[in-house]
Amino acid sequence: MSTKPSPLGSFPRTRLRRNRRAVWARALVAEHRLAASDLIAPLFVIEGTNIAEDIASMPGVQRLSIDRAVQAAAEAKRLGIPAVALFPRIDDKLKGDDGAEALNPDNLICRAVRAIKAAQPDLGVICDVALDPYTSHGHDGLLHGGAILNDETIGVLCRQAVVQAQAGCDVIAPSDMMDGRVGAIRDALDRAGLTDVQILSYAAKYASAFYGPFRDAVGSKKLLAGDKKTYQMDPANSDEAIREVALDIAEGADMVMVKPGLPYLDIVRRVKETFAVPTFAYQVSGEYAMIVAAAERGWLERDRAILESLMAFKRAGADAMVTYFAFEAARLLQRP
Ligand code: PBG
After folding, report:
1. Radius of gyration of the chain from Cα atoms?
2. Would the pTM of this model clear 0.85, i.e. be above it?
3. Residues 6+ positions from 286 with CB-CB distance below 8 Å
4. Where are the alpha helices (DSSP H) in 3-144?
5. Catalytic positions, written as ranges
6. Domain range list for the chain
7. CA of 215 to the centre of ligand 1 (A)
8. Residues with CB under 6 A from ligand 1
9. How many angstroms separate the alpha carbon of residue 260 from the centre of ligand 1?
10. Does domain 37-333 have CATH number 2.40.30.260?
11. 8 A C-beta contact, residue 142 and residue 98
12. Which of 44, 129, 314, 327 has the greatest number of CB atoms lying within 10 Å of its CB?
């Protein structure tokens, strides 16, 4: 039996540990780098002044009144984080069947956008488009006879997108998973003269158990009737994610998101390789909670787990990550 030499070398002439021996060598051969400029910081916003309210299932994350959110935006800018993503926790009294408060040009989110853009014009502001923070049933769309109406919901989402963009939001991020909404929102924005407003589509969004703490944060958990499986994707599917992303790109999405993050890195990789478009990933609330809870028990080293999990996204092909660790990770990355 002849042993053909491998073009990649073989032991003992090749010893891969040589390049790992010294810090300087590891730095030179590192294939991926994590930077603050890869991070998007989610901010939960509430009414009031000078309020920072803890979220039980997300220790370390707080709901902020607009003035405090403006301070957080300044901190993001200082740390080199390019953008924040805003989520409202509105008063339950403002919630209704049809989520009409989403269309109020003076609602919490629109006031937050105006305040943050006035203070930090160079910081990107991203707003979710979906009805769940506004509906009394906690669903992302209009509910009728137990079903989520697709086309009727799109009409409302288009108006929500325009209202948010008119408030100064830079990036509209539909997270609702209705069919056809990206194209309709693009047309609505264009008709309103908002042709420069970008669309970040939550293109491949799965019906996931990892959103639990977020639903606490926006106050939709106890309201949610049933589950979101008729519009969010089945975790068993991967080809379907490719079809979702293809449609959203064709409809005018500027960037696409895969969500959740770490359990779906195979999807991030496939999307990036297939389409070569800006591909973001969302390290969701449950992923945050897992790391935080394990670190609290002393079972994980918090700092290392945070940076390793974020680097994993980069390695999989993500261009940027939405993460509740954004501020903490950006600070860790500043250390020499
Ligand atoms: C709702 C929305 C959700 C998240 C972002 N936008 C929750 C859901 O779909 O139920 C989840 C984010 C997270 O878990 O961190 N449109």
Report:
1. 21
2. yes
3. 208, 209, 210, 211, 212, 213, 214, 260
4. 23-29, 66-79, 108-119
5. 205, 259
6. 37-333
7. 7
8. 128, 130, 132, 140, 175-176, 211, 214-215, 228, 284-285
9. 9
10. no
11. yes
12. 129
